[in-house]
Design brief:
GO terms for molecular function: endopeptidase activity. With 254 residues, this protein is mainly alpha-helical. The chain has ten helices and two strands, in the order H-H-E-H-H-H-H-E-H-H-H-H. The longest helix is centred in the middle third of the chain and has 30 residues, at 149-178.
């Protein structure tokens, strides 16, 4: 019975990853190989938040649809977690992963601190990766300037934060623990997955995001709350996406 349950959980994890970040990791590896076979990585470009139409309101529609459908695997995660509740009084999936507003002030402060801890070294790592030729030029926003550009970039940042932290940290560490794997192994595998779906940006972002995954995974095992990680990740992406969109051209970027 226990073996059958473990098999079901493994199938569940494969389904979730196949519909979300596992799929992204596969595409990322292929994109990296594509770029490497065309020339030096230093000459390649990775554009985030691409425009999907030259027509303003169709572009807006596509952007919002992408954000909405990207969150479906998160809904699936919480559905799966609800199926395995032992009793009606057992903690919900939201409570188990700490994805709620039970302590908004503390989560916000911890998230802000984590954003500073991760964000500042990331800039240095990006510069080093570019100098070594192992990182592509990253353009955080390829959207045209419309009235909705900044709100959509903020929503995109929140989307990435929720999807990655809920699935790669909260959900996977919960499931890896049920497989009987050690906490250290679970954190390392989670961190490597985080790095792998950033490989399309080069080896520098792979290393940086893997290290970020180790830090976030360790913090999660201590706090059992994914919300501070979501806050930190969202802040990092908002600064990158919106900052580039608003100030990029003014400082000669893009």
């Amino acid at each position: 019975m226990l073996l059958a349950s473990t098999r079901r959980l493994r199938a569940e994890v494969l389904i979730v990853l196949g519909l979300s970040l596992g799929q992204s990791a596969v595409y990322s590896v292929v994109q990296l190989l594509d770029k490497m076979t065309q020339g030096p990585l230093a000459h390649a470009t990775s554009t985030l938040n691409r425009s999907q139409s030259t027509r303003e309101y169709f572009d807006l529609t596509y952007q919002l649809l992408d954000i909405a459908f990207a969150l479906v695997p998160v809904v699936l995660v919480f559905y799966f977690l609800s199926l395995h509740r032992q009793t009606a009084e057992s903690p919900s999936g939201f409570t188990r992963l700490g994805f709620n507003f039970a302590r908004p002030g503390r989560d916000a402060l911890q998230g802000l601190g984590l954003a500073a801890l991760i964000g500042i070294p990331s800039l240095g790592l990006y510069a080093a990766g570019r100098a070594l030729g192992i990182t592509t030029a990253i353009i955080p926003s390829g959207l045209d300037s419309y009235w909705w550009t900044v709100p959509v970039l903020v929503l995109s940042a929140v989307r990435h934060a929720v999807v990655e932290e809920v699935i790669v940290v909260g959900y996977l560490l919960d499931r890896f623990g049920k497989f009987g794997w050690s906490t250290t192994l679970a954190i390392v595998l989670s961190a490597l997955l985080r790095g792998s779906y950033h490989l399309y940006q080069g080896f520098g972002p792979f290393i940086g995001n893997a290290v970020m995954g180790l830090v976030f995974g360790w913090i999660y095992t201590k706090t059992k709350r994914v919300m501070p990680l979501v806050v930190a990740h969202a802040l990092l992406d908002i600064v990158a996406f919106v900052g580039f969109s608003v100030f990029g051209k003014a400082i000669g970027l893009g």
